[in-house]
Amino acid sequence: MPRSAAFQTIITPMSRRSRMTRLSRLKPLLLLAPLVLLTGCSKVSGLGFEEGITSVNDQSLSLWQGAWIAAGVVGVFTLILIVWPAIFHRGKKEDPSFPKQTQYNVPVEIAYTVIPFIIVAVLFYYTAQKQTIITEKTTTYAHEITVEGIQWSWQFGYPEAGPKAVVTGTPEQTPTLVVPLGERVRYTLTANDVVHGFWIPAFMIQMQNLPGVTNHLEFTANKLGEFPGRCNILCGRNHSQMLFTVKVVTPAEYDAYLETIKGGQA
Ligand SMILES: [Cu+2]
Questions:
Q1: Distance from Cα 234 to the centre of ligand 1, integer Å
Q2: Cα(150) to centroid of ligand 1, in Å?
Q3: Among 134, 158, 192, which residue terminates a domain?
Q4: How many angstroms separate the alpha carbon of residue 149 from the centre of ligand 1?
Q5: 98: domain range?
Q6: Residue ranges of the chain with pLDDT lower than 70?
Q7: Total of domains in the chain
Q8: 183 and 88 within one domain
Q9: Model pTM greater than 0.85?
Q10: C-alpha span between 51 and 150 (Å, rounded)
Q11: Of 93, 111, 134, at which residue does a domain stop?
């Protein structure tokens, strides 16, 4: 027997066996993977959003995190189901027969119908619950601001400061929406041409401005600073220029601002 062939007959069966032992050792690890991923961090990250920044974030953030955790668990579990057979149930050269098939297995089919239904039902329940709180209209709001979408900018009105207190933006001169800190504001959303979308990403807020429809949204901004806003409905040629800035100021600064725009755009 040539030397290389003899070497192969000794080495091959051994290395395959040791590979299989190593793989079987991996089994418990694969099962534990989702658990490790979930318990790895004691505090779940905001996943792109800041906590406590508005009354909407107070509701939406846990929904956002929960949806990602659910997606992560489902994703890891699905990945294991895909990778597991590829590693542990590979076709064997010495036994090329077709493995046992489990189609038309009623318990399995019931399981993979019921489990996704439960996932969707749980996501739906929490979404409906949070949405009801977020879109709640009260009579106890402190201020009112009108938000009109126009091709292609925004018009913000402050009725408390009189009918002339309106700020109209243009794509070249994007407007600023001034908002008081810690006070609930009712926003009245309208559009004078086509559908626009009033969107402040950091505040986790989006509501449409619809022609002929008046929408209301109430929330409290809880962090001072400036935040970008934009239109998120493709509304025409210059849609991408429908930018605005949200400036959260102290209540005293807000009152002072209302004074400055009483007579019209500052
Ligand atoms: Cu728009």
A1: 6
A2: 7
A3: 134
A4: 6
A5: 3-134
A6: 1-43, 266
A7: 2
A8: no
A9: no
A10: 31
A11: 134
